[in-house]
Amino acid sequence: MTTTTTTTTTTTTQEPTPSHPTLIQVNRSPIPFASGAYSLVSAPAGSLLCKITGTTPSKKAYTSVQTGRDSHIELNSDLVYCNHSCDPTVNFDMDKMEVRVVDDRDLKAGDPLTFFYPSTEWEMDQPFECTCGSGEKCKGRIDGAKNLSTEVLGEYWLNPHIAEMVAEREAGRK
Ligand SMILES: [Zn+2]
Q1: Which pLDDT tens digit goes with each residue over 24-38?
Q2: Which parts of this chain are annotated as the region Disordered (predicted)?
Q3: What is the CATH number of the domain that holds 87?
């Protein structure tokens, strides 16, 4: 009697090396924009999840993240799989280059890693109809902070460059 032990699985697609193997599980989907990042760890509200490293300056693109009034970067890591949510689990602080758990609830292992895209993006390269599933918290069409009211933006932690542009917009209305 012989037993066959398969120790390696042959896949037709080569998955890239995870950038955050202890922190982030990436679920890849062949459906465009359906891939996502999930947390492998639990962490308290407001805590530092990881520093954002290995970025490169970039033009505005659907994968880029805005870091200042006129600056954008590519993340070049699995952090790029963090999707938008109107009820996000983390904040991307592009000033301190930190990913932190949101201030009002703890992160649990298995949670999707999501952030509120208008907290970094003033005007997005590719606007979309949100399907985050957060019920009445969902803002519908997401195209950046520019087209969201100051009241709505007030529900979220915002990067300094976005807060600054919102303040200017308000000042311009007076
Ligand atoms: Zn939403």
Answers
A1: 999 998 887 789 999
A2: 1-22
A3: 2.170.270.10
